[in-house]
Design goal:
The structure is a single chain. The longest helix is centred in the N-terminal third of the chain and has 19 residues. Helix 10 packs across helix 15 and helix 19 packs across helix 25. The strands form 4 sheets. Strands 1-6-7-5-8-4-3-2 form an 8-stranded mixed sheet, sandwiched between helices. A 6-stranded mixed sheet has the order 14-15-19-16-18-17, sandwiched between helices. Helices cover 42% and strands 18% of the residues. It has 914 residues and is an alpha+beta fold.
Length: 914
């Protein structure tokens, strides 16, 4: 839902080593003074300080990173009249810094840390993921302890951040689906603060007094209202010592944390809300009141929501999508501290009457009374929900973030308790919950219907957490993996390469992972410039049809098999390439690879699935055809890489995509698959606890039954000098506007200047302390999102540099002036030694942390295999970056970046601008 507001910026950093002290060994040693052990469940141990701070430690030696995540139990639910959005405003100010850390963003960037913060109904959280070292852990704990009491909540910072948050509000206003969900919540909750959007209302954002913000901060930012989570490679005893030293002296106010007491009355009839805004796709949202996350009925609600909407077996999916009434259907179950909503959503194309979709959706939900879910439906949903729980638990940093919502719901152990409830919830439980809450008088939809004797749903109160969790133990902790150093050199020394049947390059990185997980990336490249001309729509369609059934399995059977194998599979690509990313556990990898081979070789191409896919694709493109960011990006890319219509290297406009989809036939899709789908040039990279020889044998067997396709040749985009251009794209009724600019360079990734251009881009707009970001967002408060990117492709002698900023249409001229001023400053004055040193450190560390993600490593190994490269190439780039001088960087920028050749485009609703 769009209300979950956050500081949307992420940086990555380098890993450093430390040694773990096991929980058993820690138990033999005395805890720091004032620290008591509270509970331990599945590898997570809770401690509590005398001042009330709760601490959760999740040690994990398998990755050389640490995540520090602090959750404050304060969100938009705690805001008063005229204060909407205040919790989120404080989030922005907190992210700037504090007394001992006045420039937190720079410190985080210098240490190569990934950071983020977010605000929701019941909580606000801040986290950093950074290289594992004692120094970094001490820094992060000191940062969070100082921000708890000494954050920079000042008038001058509020003046700049207010406009940034307002711009974030305007970005959300461009999303009709998100706004509709806000309207459903505000209509369903007449009195409770869950009816208020976390982002707040524009007038409150603009007018909130600094004194109210400071008072709100002092009231809720305190040890006894926070939970500190530390996950990753660290010594538990040392972590507790640091926490006790930094947080222990902090004193909670004598007055208790203010308690909210408003309860939403039982709803006494259907409610209606209608949203009218510009757009090309209709939306339907229907909400029903349900209990708090801690209530036993939550698991039943998750089960019924999944069973109704999952594709292709869900009842709502069959009733709406298969009948072409809707292009998509989904459901979201609120996991909140107090009673929330289960929300059903549907996307509907313009030509379909929305009331027909509404009636069909409500009829299907109402039909649960007479036709309960079957055992097969429940077991299928149970397997899917448990798989979705189990896979993230193998990664401690993801687990640390997942705990956020359950801490907000009342207690972190609810995460495991809810999992246990999902395991045992019965058809009787599900049906009882459906009968309780899916009543006409309990829903918010499109109209009011009088009822002389309304049946009302009395939502029960949340249970006592003390009684509920008194003796809870949970399962055994997830098995840990090995300590792995993700440097290019270490990866390269571990990697085993095989050429299988002269048609596939196999790259295996044996590595023991937490939970026995394994990731595989498969890449198929096919066709050439001539054979792929005019084939973009057919190529896209084949990829979208692959998971919709094979000649021996239905779409549902494929999904059931992936669920059984605990596997997530995603398919992506371009006109000349198909990429498959697999996540599973090591013992199941062979069966998953066999299944993927079947899907790729023998897709069913059922006519009904094709038409359903085509309608969904049309709706997806129609939904963005008037979005400012999409139109600006397409226009810029077509300017930087101009090609004739139909050229596989070109970029199609939304209108061209719509025309292609309407003209596309199933026979053309089948023909594309017959011509191009085979491993004539393929790469498979596997990362995890897998031996090279068995996977080599398996791949060889699969290839023997798969004939080679036509010859393949890389699609190369020749260098084309950018000519200065500037234009405006009108998108009526869009609150947010986009400024984008760019140009092409005659320098590929093997050019001598390429490393210098990489660091120059990093300093210009590649991170949260970059010049463009600091100027346009930090100093002038004109934009919520500011960034630049340098893009280069192997085998080409060109690269492109692009810039984008989101802003209010009124401010787009100021944003452009600031952008041009910073570019001219970089060209005339250049960069200095301190800035260059910090950039090199931050960028190189970011590459290191990226390689802690197995999916990133697998995909990178597959790309390098296609390019006939190894990790030595990455190591060489990083070594060249480390050796760069200030003069080399400044000279490279002046050689290639020419402000007089920039292509600049503005998109938005400028009807009210001067």
């Amino acid at each position: 839902m769009r209300q979950r507001a956050s500081v949307q910026f992420v940086r990555w950093g380098v890993l450093a080593g430390t040694v773990l002290l096991s929980s058993a060994l820690l138990a033999q040693n005395a805890l720091p003074a004032g620290v008591v052990r509270v509970a331990s469940v599945e590898g997570i141990t809770e401690y509590r300080l005398e001042n009330g701070l709760r601490v959760l430690l999740l040690p994990d030696p398998s990755k050389r990173i640490i995540t520090v995540n602090i959750v404050y139990q304060v969100g938009s639910r705690h805001e008063d009249y005229g204060e909407t959005g205040m919790a989120h405003l404080i989030e922005h100010l907190m992210s700037i810094g504090s007394e001992r850390h006045p420039d937190a963003k720079k410190e985080q960037s210098d240490r190569g840390a990934q950071r983020n913060a977010s605000t929701w109904f019941d909580r606000t959280n801040y986290y950093e993921t950074f290289p594992a070292s004692d120094d970094n852990l001490a820094w992060a704990i000191d940062l969070e302890s100082d921000r708890m009491f000494n954050a920079s909540i000042r008038r001058d910072l509020l003046n700049s951040q207010m406009s940034v948050v307002r711009n974030e509000f305007e970005i959300g206003e461009n999303n009709p689906a998100g706004v509709l969900e806000e309207r459903v919540f505000s209509t369903a909750f007449l009195w409770h603060n869950y009816g208020k959007s976390t982002i707040g209302t524009k007038t409150d954002i603009e007018r909130v007094p600094i004194e109210k913000l400071q008072s709100f901060y002092r009231t809720y930012y305190r040890p006894d209202n926070a939970v500190l989570i530390v996950a990753g490679r660290f010594e538990e005893g040392r972590a507790l010592q640091l926490i006790a030293e930094k947080f222990g002296p902090l004193t909670s106010p004598t007055a208790p944390v203010p308690a909210t007491y408003t309860e939403e009355p039982v709803q006494d009839g259907e409610r209606t809300v209608t949203l009218r805004r510009a757009g090309d796709v209709q939306r339907l949202a229907v909400g029903y009141h349900i209990p708090a996350a801690a209530h036993p009925d939550t698991a039943a609600m998750e089960m019924v929501a999944d069973a109704l909407t999952s594709a292709p077996s869900g009842r709502l999916y069959k009733a709406l999508v298969e009948t072409k009434l809707a292009t998509s259907v989904s459901a979201d179950v609120s996991l909140l501290r107090e009673a929330g909503l289960v929300l059903f959503n549907a996307g509907v194309r313009k030509e379909v009457p929305l009331d027909r979709v509404r009636d069909a959706l409500l009829a299907e939900v109402d039909r649960l009374v007479a036709l309960p879910l079957t055992t097969e439906e429940i077991e299928r949903s149970r397997a899917r929900l448990l798989k979705n729980f189990d896979l993230p638990m193998a990664e401690s940093n993801r687990q640390a973030m997942a705990l956020t919502e359950w801490v907000a719901a009342g207690d972190w152990r609810l995460m495991f308790l809810n999992r246990d409830r999902l395991r045992r919830v019965s058809a009787t439980d599900v049906q009882a919950a459906a009968l309780k809450y899916f009543k006409p008088s309990n829903r918010t939809v499109g109209q009011f219907i009088p009822d002389d004797a309304p049946a009302r749903a009395d939502v029960p109160a949340a249970p006592s957490l003390t009684e509920l969790l008194r003796d809870y133990k949970g399962d055994a902790a997830v098995a840990t993996g090995e300590a792995f150093d993700p440097t290019p050199d270490n990866i390269e020394r571990r990697v085993v390469r095989r050429l299988v049947s002269n048609r596939m390059q196999l790259v295996v990185l044996p590595k023991k992972n937490r939970g026995g997980t394994v990731v595989a990336a498969l890449r198929l490249d096919y066709g050439d410039e001539q054979s792929l001309k005019g084939q973009a729509a057919a190529s896209d369609a084949v990829r979208q049809m692959l998971m919709r059934g094979s000649t021996t399995r239905t779409r549902q059977q494929i999904q059931d098999e992936l669920t059984r194998l605990k596997a997530d599979v995603s398919v992506s690509g371009s006109v000349s390439r198909t990429q498959v990313l697999i996540r599973t556990v090591a013992p199941n990898l062979p069966d998953v690879v066999r299944l993927i081979g079947e899907i790729l070789r023998e897709p069913a191409f059922a006519a009904t699935e094709f038409e359903e896919m085509r309608q969904l694709a049309l709706a997806s493109v129609e939904a963005i055809r008037m979005e400012p960011d999409q139109l600006a990006a397409v226009t810029l890319q077509r300017t930087l890489t101009p090609f004739e219509a139909g050229d596989a290297r070109g970029v199609r406009t939304p209108d061209e995509q719509i025309a292609d989809l309407k003209a596309l036939t199933l026979e053309r899709v089948k023909e594309f698959h017959r011509r191009f789908y085979a491993p004539s040039n393929a790469a498979l990279a596997v990362v995890g606890d897998v031996a090279p020889e068995p996977i080599t044998t398996l791949v060889s067997q699969l290839l023997s039954a798969w004939p080679a396709s036509a010859a393949q040749a890389r699609l190369v985009r020749p260098y084309s000098a950018t000519t200065a251009t500037s234009s405006r794209i009108d998108t009526p009724d869009k609150a947010n506007a986009v400024l984008t600019a760019g140009m092409s360079f005659a320098a590929g990734d093997e050019h001598a200047d390429y490393p210098a251009l990489v660091i120059a881009n990093y300093m210009l707009g590649g991170h949260s302390k970059s010049r463009l970001y600091e100027r346009i967002r930090g100093q002038e408060g004109l934009s919520y999102s500011v960034s630049s990117q340098l893009a280069a492709t192997s085998g080409e002698t060109r690269s492109s540099w692009t810039f984008v900023a989101l802003t209010n249409p009124v401010n787009i001229g100021k944003a452009e002036a600031a952008f041009r001023d910073e570019i001219n400053t970089a060209l005339t004055r250049g960069f200095d030694a301190a800035e260059v040193d910090a950039a090199k450190q931050g960028y190189l560390q970011s590459r290191q942390v990226q390689r802690t993600d197995d999916a990133t490593v697998a995909q990178r190994l597959a790309v390098l295999a296609y390019d006939n490269r190894t990790m030595t190439f990455d190591e060489s780039i990083e070594q060249r970056i480390q050796a760069l001088s200030v003069a080399q960087i400044n000279d490279a920028v002046r050689r290639h970046l020419d402000a007089s050749r920039l292509a600049v485009f503005r998109a938005g609703d400028f009807s009210k601008t001067p």
